[in-house]
Amino acid sequence: MLTKRRSTESNFEHYFSANPKSKLRERRVDAKLLGLDYTFVIPSSVFGFRKGIDKATEILINHVLLEGKTLLDLGCGFGIIGIVIKRMHPEIRVYMSDINKRATEYAKINAKRYNLDVDIRQGDGFECWRMMKFDQILCNPPFAAGKVVWIKMIEDAYIHLSPKGTLQMVAYHNKGGKSLEREMERVFSNVTEIVKKSGIRVYLSRKP
Predict the structure, then answer these.
(1) Angle, to 10 degrees, between the axis of helix 147-159 and the axis of helix 178-188?
(2) Is this prediction's pTM over 0.85?
(3) I want to staple 149 with a disulfide (CB 3.0 to 4.6 A). Which of 94, 145, 165, 183 is the partner?
(4) Does any domain span residue 109?
């Protein structure tokens, strides 16, 4: 079960701000994911602070297709996706990044709670992974940041995937998901809906 409380913070900064200036507040969220119990600390001005773990992220975690040896959690927020996958699959080398400095700081705190060896970096898109390629990239894209931002994430993901590597993105199909699906098809020349649940889709594109 997820435990939630309503945030009283009125001047909410966008979670895609690079250096949040708002007063730091913390929220603790307990969850059971893939059969294991978790406690995450989420700071203000990071996605999840106001509402906790969102359903789309949970569905991506529960249905992710894992292949290869390296995985990037792009736009990792407080670290939930990368942390759960690394804990369940310690053989996978997990990398995590987010534009938000506060997000990456707390992703490191949350990963340390479970003694996980993960590489967490702050950076806009792929700027902190310039020379790297990954077997898998996972992302719950920041639709609130605007179309230009998430389209570039798809285009850059293609560049940073190994041959046969996959990009898996999650969205509400009628709230941005249709556009996401079209752009993944445009960039990769293929896209598959691997999950359809509660209006949410997980889309997968594979690099040739």
Answers:
(1) 30
(2) yes
(3) 145
(4) yes
Count helices and strands in the chain by DSSP H and E runs: 5, 9
Which three-class secondary structure state does DSSP give residue 196? strand
Is 59 contained in some domain? yes
CA atoms within 13 A on the CB side of 88: 17
Structural tokens at position 3: 């435990």
Establish how many alpha carbons lie within 13 A of residue 144's alpha carbon, considering only the half-sphere containing its beta carbon: 9
Q: Which two tokens stand for residue 74?
A: 């792009």
Residue 118 within any structural domain of the chain: yes
φ, ψ of residue 163 to 5 degrees: the values are -55, 135
> pLDDT digit string (tens) for 5-14?
333 333 345 6
- CATH number, domain of 171, equals 3.40.50.150
Distance CA 137, CA 142 (A): 15
Please count the structural domains in the chain: 1
Pairwise CA distance, residues 75 & 94, whole Å: 13
Residue 12 is which amino acid?
F
Tokens of residue 164, six digits: 């046969």
Instruction: State the Cα–Cα distance between residues 152 and 4, nearest whole angstrom.
Output: 33
Amino acid at 198: S
Q: HSE, CB side, 13 Å, CA atoms: give it for residue 4.
A: 10
Q: Each residue of 19-68: pLDDT tens digit? A: 877 889 999 999 999 999 999 999 999 988 888 999 999 999 999 999 99
